[in-house]
Design brief:
It comes from Sphingobacterium alkalisoli. By secondary structure, the chain is of the alpha/beta class. It has 2 domains: about 150 residues, VC0802-like (2-Layer Sandwich); about 160 residues, Vaccinia Virus protein VP39 (Rossmann fold), CATH 3.40.50.150. The chain contains 10 helices and 15 strands. It has an 8-stranded mixed β-sheet with strand order 2-3-1-4-8-7-5-6. Helix 3 runs parallel beside helix 4. The longest helix has 20 residues. The chain starts with 8 loop residues before the first strand and ends in an 8-residue tail after the last strand.
């Protein structure tokens, strides 16, 4: 019997490129020891029950993968022969459903889809041989998900305990134009070291992701409160009491008494409507003051805090000459109206960033999709720098 829920094994938590430092921070804060960190994730040694805690708490992660086996495989036949030896009948219900994902770099494989089929065939053949029934499989990630990591002649097979990605936090039913992924938004806020109590101002808020993530962070409301289905629930040995106990704990951690001033503005009434709907779904609409106005008319409380812009980059939306004026106006607004604040501009366009006309005190590297981006930090001194 393969008892994965209580048996520690290698666990890989993946994240988008450049989010690893923020993921490490989160994992350590949950009390777990990191064995190894790399550009797109971390490695730990845990059971699937531990993975339940990770799935419910992590904001910056993508998937939580639990290793079932690793072996040498030079070609698809060797891959199949090793996989069919695993006791899949103890892991996946014979009347269940599973899907396969993979990362493959092996010269005998021209498409990962072929490797996925080999994995699927091995699992189905093994369960049919042992149970006389074949489980269903397909492309949906709503039940058991198996992940193959195959580099050259080294293959690892994992249970993807997450299923649908953790990088989306479940409240954004209306994405709006060019939205920022929730895991990325959280990471940028973590980079600012915002205390969760002082004001957080987000002009040009679009669909509201930054303001919503700030509200969720401030009140310690974990992503698991938004989600009731994970891949781990569909593997043999799942004890729902473990899940509900963890869910009770994250409910208890949430602190509704923390009420920072969060202001989100946008010139588009449609964008504000979408942002309000998303905030309502996330349960934080009451924490955010929404304003329909030009960014320069955004309410900036006197008490210093963090002000963050995520303007268009000129990649997908808008045109350059118009954006040059916008970036210059952002710089003027930060200089004149946000004294005492820490100012941040997230952009994928270094040429436009120059138009802000302020010297960045720090530059944090991120990717937004495949686009190389920077979060630029500006110290907006009240009076002279010495004061």
């Amino acid at each position: 019997m393969t008892e994965v829920f209580n048996t520690p094994s290698k666990v890989i938590i993946t994240c988008n490129r450049r989010l690893s430092p923020y993921l490490q921070e989160e994992v350590k804060s949950l009390g777990f020891e990191i064995k190894r960190a790399f550009n797109t994730g971390v490695e730990l040694f845990l059971s699937v029950n531990d993975c339940i805690k990770l799935n419910l708490n992590l904001r910056t992660a993508s998937q939580v993968l639990y290793e079932v086996e690793s072996f040498r495989a030079n070609d698809p036949k060797e891959l199949y022969d090793n996989l069919v030896k695993i006791a899949w009948e103890d892991i996946i219900p014979f009347d269940g459903y599973f899907s396969v994902t993979s990362t493959v770099h092996n010269e005998t494989i021209t498409t990962p889809l072929f490797a996925n089929v080999k994995v699927k065939d091995a699992i189905v053949d093994r369960i049919k041989d042992k149970k006389g029934v074949r489980p269903d499989s397909g492309p949906d990630y709503h039940k058991c998900v198996i992940h193959l990591h195959w580099m050259e002649e080294r293959a690892e097979i994992f249970l993807d305990t997450s299923g649908e990605t953790l990088a989306k936090h479940g409240y954004r039913k209306h994405p709006g134009k060019a939205p920022m992924l929730e895991a990325l938004a959280t990471s940028t806020i973590m980079a600012t070291k915002w205390d969760g109590k002082s004001p957080f101002i987000n002009p040009m808020c679009g669909s509201g992701t930054l303001a919503i993530e700030a509200a969720l962070l401030a009140q310690k409301r974990m992503p698991g409160l938004q989600r009731m289905n994970y891949s781990f629930m569909h593997f043999i040995g799942y004890d729902e009491e473990v899940f509900f106990e963890e869910r009770r704990q994250i409910k208890d951690i949430a602190d509704k008494t923390i009420l920072p001033q969060i202001v989100a503005s946008d010139i588009s009434d449609q964008a504000i409507e979408i942002a309000k709907m998303n905030a309502r779904t996330a349960g934080v609409e009451h924490l955010i003051t929404f304003e329909i106005c030009d960014f320069a008319d955004t309410t900036v409380p006197q008490e210093p805090g963090v002000i963050m812009f995520n303007p268009e980059y000129g990649e997908r939306l808008g045109t350059h000459s118009k954006l040059e004026v916008t970036y210059k106006r952002i710089g003027d607004f930060l200089k004149q109206d946000c004294k005492g604040y820490k100012g941040y501009v997230f952009t994928g366009n270094p040429e436009l960033a120059k138009k802000i006309g302020l010297k960045a005190s720090r530059r944090f590297e991120f990717f937004n999709g495949k686009l190389d981006c920077r979060l630029l930090q500006y110290e907006l001194y009240d009076g002279s720098k010495e004061n």
